[in-house]
Amino acid sequence: MIVAVDIGNTRIKWGVHDGAKWLNRGALLTSEAALLADVAAHWPQQAAVVACNVAGSVTERLVVDALQHRPVLRWLRSSHEACGVRNSYEQPEKLGADRWAALIGARGKTDEPCLVVCAGTATTVDLLDGDGLFRGGLILPGMDLMRAALAHNTAQLPLADGEFQAEPRSTVDAIHSGCLHAQLGAIERMFASLSGTPGALCFMTGGAAARIAPHLNIPYVLTENLILEGLVRFGASL
Questions:
Q1: Which member of 6, 18, 38, 98 is catalytic?
Q2: Model's pTM, two decimal places?
Q3: Residues contacting residue 155 through CB under 8 Å, at least 6 positions apart
């Protein structure tokens, strides 16, 4: 029994896994990390906890304190190799732990080359080849961060709540469509290096994945819990 905990910039996602399926899942705001103690009181007492964190040391300390009565708390840190994935980052330990977890999760789903996209506060777009080598990837502002940047740094552009249009004819739709095109362009350009490989696909995960994926012109799979699945794979390997 493993409890996976993904500590992101905006939310803390968690799930209880029995080795075959998810028994329970949930989320809370990262700013409310101390409340994880109340959530953890309902987890199976014998379950080990495996976590990754990109929200900084202060938040990590809050999580450690909240889970101090759990039997085991293990952290997934980026490394040279784990669970069949090798890390080609110039400084492997500098790769975000959430990206590393997602790559491990993707490797558990396919042995074919794939693109791993985590669309959250930031969007990350990572290449994983058929031999399990992480070849590198992109980091760009996520959809909502792009929209907020335009609103905060321009005099006349609003925080747009528009819709995607092929040929936008309003400011709010132009902003929404422009931010979406930026996401799509980054993903599709990175996938281009895999497009000639049979079986290659794109795994989409994260809070904004469902908004982006339907507009992609590449084969994709929406995977709600790819980071948590990577944490479970890592926990099972220990």
A1: 98
A2: 0.95
A3: none
